[in-house]
Design goal:
It is a single chain. This protein is of the alpha+beta class. The chain has 14 helices and 17 strands. β8 and β9 form a beta hairpin. It is a multi-pass membrane protein.
Amino acid sequence: MDTLKALLTALRQWWSEFTLQAKLLALSTLVVSLIMTGFTFFSLASIQADARLSDTRYARDVGLLLAANVTSLVAEGQDRQLITVANRFWEQSNSIRYILFADPDGVIYLTLPLDNAEEDSALRLRRRLELPDSIYDHPGDPLVRQHLSPDGQVTDVFVPLMANGQNLGSVALGLNPNEVVLNTTALTRKVTIAVFITIWVLVILGAVFNALTITHPIKALLHGVRKIAAGQFSTRIALPMGGELGELLEGFNAMASQLEVYKAANIEEMKVANKELKVAQAQQQSLIATMADGAMLLDDQGRVVLANPTSQRLFRWEARKLVGEPLVNLLPESLLMDVGEALQQVLAGEQATRDIRCSFGSPTRTLRIVLVAVTDPSSSVLKGVTVTLQDLSREVELNAAQSRFISNVSHELRTPLFNIKTYVETLHDLWTQISDEERSEFLATANAETDRLTRLVNDVLDLSRLESGQEFRFEPMELRPALEQTLRNYRLNAFDKGVRLLCEVEPTLPRVQANFDLLLQVLDNLVGNALKFTPSGGLVCLRAYLWPDSCPVPEVSTSATINDLTSRMPRLRVEVSDTGCGMNEPDQARIFGRFYRAENTVHTQQGTGLGLAIVRNIMEKQGSVPKLVSKPGVGTTFWFELPLEGSDDDELALLAERAQTDTASDAAIIPRRRSG
């Protein structure tokens, strides 16, 4: 098959190199040869048809003659005389190959030449003849046919035997074709072959003549044009030709000389233009690669042609082969329905642009995906689709945080503002009707509510700053100064309340990766809560140790699980434990939620309910999660872990992202109940 294709290609190339005059000459010669060949074949076919018709008539006449001589013998049952007459016919004619007789049922009962061993005869026939019923309706029109046997062509004649309208059977003859016809056919074949050879020899000679006289300069001109098209302007054609063809070659040489001069004059300009083009392409690629938004280009079938690094990071495609892959095969399943339907509408020309928003992945990312059809300005044919990806996750989180804060602040600010307004209005309206003692009490209550409102606003601002996504700098630091400053801040409060304040810290603590101000705020909230819920005579203790290399298990750790007491890599653990009132399990599950206060069950302590939410958010920034164990009537222990100096920044960032994801469900607002 490959050889045939190569041969056809070579023939097409050979034919394309001829001039129009040569092609017309060859085609006219071919047409004339085909017409002559057609006439020859028509004449020979007519001669052969006449020969076959004569042979058929001769076989028909012989069959009718034999039937006329044997019909009476068959009707009278004179078998011996039948055999004699049939044998005489067979011996007197060299063209008869066989004669056979069949009864009305088609059963053959006599064959000539006589041969008892029919099974081995070269002229073996079937023992039964099946002839059409219509042959008996026209006894004078026998059935004649021809077939090819191993010994050559044979003409078969089937003649019905009828006497007084009675069907006596049939007789069949086989005749050899006429020798004259065979000789004529052979002669015709030889003449035809000779005519074909003669015609095609003339065609080939004419083609060679044209090639020698005309084709050579045309080929030279064609090769020269191809070299000029390839940029080889120094090409020249030197052939001693005259006439129009010579003028054509001279014009070609002049054109090549002018192009060579033009190339030499503009080579520097082309270099400068190419350099500027490369710079522009590099700038464009750099711009696409550094875009904050994801950008992709698809072809008219929806296959990826280009994807910038931002889009690869959004879908985590960094290690995948993208070019040539259909976009619908690359997208996460959660996006297939929305994006796939929109992409099909753009590809089908139903819409020129689609703007959709969808969410996927864990943690959940919110994307804005803009699909725009790219069409040919002249024909409006779709050439591809541009895909712009904008990560709106941060905006969505900020909007949700803003809504939550508005709800929280409106709820928590209502009570102190109402109390302040109530007492101030009472003083304003009833100043002369109330005693000095009542005035002092009202002013003290308003002042306390003002302090409460100030603390609430400060806590809300701190929590808002943490949840807004502000970046904090974490650097190597010593933990001991933060612990000592926290103890100094609360030593006087502990003394006034009669609570012992201890610090159990190993003498050689490793440096940690942390933010001093945020760490001080965490310790301040935890120690302040411990003092608030520890009665007089109780104990508040700060501990710090390397974990998991050493782990003093707190005495109050009665509900901690194995997962709570393990760590994947060495860290510094900080604990704040107290011997206060403790918490039940429902309170432990909700204590880190915003505006939730454990004193709902005791109704004795004041607070904003945001301290532990701030602690949780600060620790999430460092890839840690604060935990606790507590038992009512025994006490509570809070702890958190800090990464050591030299920890991998990428791993810490990943842990921080996981910590924020794991605690996202705890961010619901839990309003506190007033104590009445």
